[in-house]
Amino acid sequence: MTKVLEDRDLCGSISANINNLDFLLHCLDDSYEGILLADLEGRVFYANKAVERVSGVPLKDIIGYTAKEIEERGIIVNQSLKVLKKNPLIIFQKLRTGKEVFITSKPVRDEHGNPICYIANYRDLSSLNELHEKYHRQLDVDYSELHELRTKLLQSDNLIGNSHQMKKLKEKVQKVAKSEAAVLIIGESGVGKEVVSKSIHKMSHRSKESYIQINCGAIPESLMEAELFGYDKGAFTGASSGKAGLLEVANKGTVLLDEIGEMPLHLQVKLLRVIQSKEITRVGGTKSKKLDIRFLAATNKDLKQMVKEGTFREDLYYRLNVVPIHIPPLRDRKEDIIYLTYYFLEKFNKKYGTNKQLNAETGKLLENYDWPGNIRQLENTIERIVIMTDSSLITAQSLPEEITNSKIMLDTQKKIIPLKDLVKKTEKEMIEFALKKYKSIREAAKKLEVDHSTLIRKIKKFEIK
Predict the structure, then answer these.
(1) Computed from CA positions of residues 371, 373, 379, 385, in that sequence, does the dihedral angle turn out positive or negative?
(2) 117 membership: H or E segment, kind and range
(3) What is the number of other CB atoms lying within 10 angstroms of the CB of residue 17?
C-alpha cells in the first residue's frame, strides 16, 4: 500500500470520522486518477500511486509537506497545493517534467458541515490529450472510410435494383471506376447506359473534372469533325475565329461517346489516333495539343458484327472494348422493376407535390410487363400515371392499355385451352376492361372499334354486368 504519513496525529479528527480507514485507502490506492488529501493547514497526509505517476515526483517528497515546503525544494513550479485551502477550486498546473495536470479540489466536511480536510484529484492532461488525439485520428479514419462508402452509394444511387445481375453490375462499375481503362457499355435502348457512364465518372478520381457526353448519332456528319476536334480561324468559310472542340473542352475529364456505332468510318480513324496519341489537332490547324481524357463508349448495336461487315473499324473496337459492361434488359431482371417503380414514384411525387401510392395489383401488373423500352419506358409511364391519376391510389385502371392487355395474355398462358374458348375469354375480359375504363358504352365501343349495337349484343352474350 502507498505510504501514509505514520504520524497519525497530523490527521487530527480524521480517523475518528472515517471507519475502516485502511480499506478506504486501499481502494483509493487503485484509482487511475491521482488523489491527494491534505489537512486544514495544507499539509499532505495521503497521496496514492497515481499522484506519483502523474506528477513524476516520488511520494516521499510530497507526503508530510506543505505546498510552500515542496516549492522551496524545487519540486513544483508554483504553490499549486496551496489552492487546496480554497473552496472549491479547479486549476491547470504545468509540472517541471513538462506534463500538464488538471487539478480539482474541495473540502471534506463532517456531519455538522465543518471542514475536516481537503481532497484533490489529479488528472494527467498529457495522457488524456494523447488519447483524445488517438481517438480522433481513428475517428477521422473511420469517418473517411464511411464518407467514401457513402459517396460511392450516393454516386451510384441511380443504379437501382437488387437482382443478381444488378449486384454484379454495381461491383463491376465500382472496380472499373478506379482505373483509367476504356469502357464499352452495351445494352438495348433505355437500359441506362448513360447512368452507368455517369456513375463511373463520379466514382473516379476525375469526378471533379468535366463530364462530356457526345451523341454520335445526333450530330450531322458534316459538322461532327468540327464539333469533336474544334477548328482554327479560317478553317472554312465563316470561321472568323477558332473554337475548341468537345474533346478539348473535356480535357482532364471523362468523355462518353454515346451511340458510337453511328460514327462515320473516316472519323473513326481520327478518333483512334486521338485515343492512341492523346493528342488533338483542330480542323484547319497545324499544332497538336496534348489531352488527358478517360474514354467511355456506349452502343445498342452489335459492334462485333459491324466489324465483320466493315462498317466499324476493328482497331477502334478493341481500343474501346478494354472493359465491356453489358446492361441486361429490364425483362431479364424483373425483380428490379418494383425497386425502380418506387424510385420513380418518389421522384415524381416530389416533383409534382403529390402523394400517389400503388396498390398490390398494380405493382404485379408492372412487374409482369416486359417493358420493351426498358427503364426509360418505365420512368415515362410512372410520370404519366402520377400526372393523370386523380385519386391518391394508383389502380390497374390508371395503367396504359399495353400493360393491362399483357395481363390478359399472361393469364391465358397459364394453361392450354381451346382457341375458341381463348377468343371468348380474351374478348370478354377486354370488353370488361373497356367498360371500366371509359364512361359510356358508346365510348368503349369506339375504342374497341365495333358498333355500339354490336357491343351491347356482346355484353348480353357474355352476361357482363
Answers:
(1) negative
(2) strand 115-124
(3) 15
The length of the chain in residues reads: 465
Confidence at residue 273, expressed as pLDDT on a 0 to 100 scale: 92
Q: Is the Cβ–Cβ distance between 397 and 367 less than 8 Å?
A: no
DSSP at 327: P
Within 10 angstroms of residue 325's Cβ, the number of other Cβ atoms is 19
Amino acid of residue 329: P
The more confidently predicted of residues 71 and 187 is 187
216 three-state secondary structure? coil
What are the DSSP calls for 439-455, one per residue? SSHHHHHHHHTS-HHHH
Q: What is the DSSP letter of 83?
A: G
The enclosing H or E element of 172 equals helix 164-177
Cβ-proximal residues to 43 (8 Å cutoff; 6+ apart), any chain: 10, 64, 65, 66
Separation CA 63–CA 44 (nearest Å)? 5
Calculate the CA dihedral of residues 301, 305, 307, 310 and round it to 10 degrees. -100
Q: Is the pLDDT of residue 8 over 80?
A: no
pTM score of the predicted model = 0.56
| Rounded distance between C-alpha atoms, residue 123 and residue 48, angstroms | 13
Distance in angstroms (rounded) separating the CA atoms of residues 257 and 275: 12
| pLDDT 10s digits, 383-437 | 999 999 988 889 888 888 888 776 554 454 456 667 777 677 778 878 887 887 7
State the pairing for strand pair 254-258/294-299. parallel
